[in-house]
Amino acid sequence: MWRSIGMLLAAITLCVAAASRAQTSASSVDEEVTIDGPLRGAWRTPEHWRDGKLVLILAGSGPTDRDGNSSIGGVHPNTYKMIADALAANGIASLRVDKRGIGASAGAVTAEAELRFDTYVSDAASWANFAWARSGVRCVYMLGHSEGAEIAALAAAHVRSCGVISVAGAGRDIGETLLRQLQAVDAPADLIAQAHHCIDELRAGRTVADPPPALMSLFRPSVQPYVISWLAKNPVTALASVDAPVLILQGSADIQVEVEDAQLLAAGHPGAQLVLLEGVNHILKIAPADRAQNVATYADPNLPLAPGVMPPILAFLAEHQRSIN
Question: Is pTM beyond 0.85 here?
Answer without folding.
Answer: yes
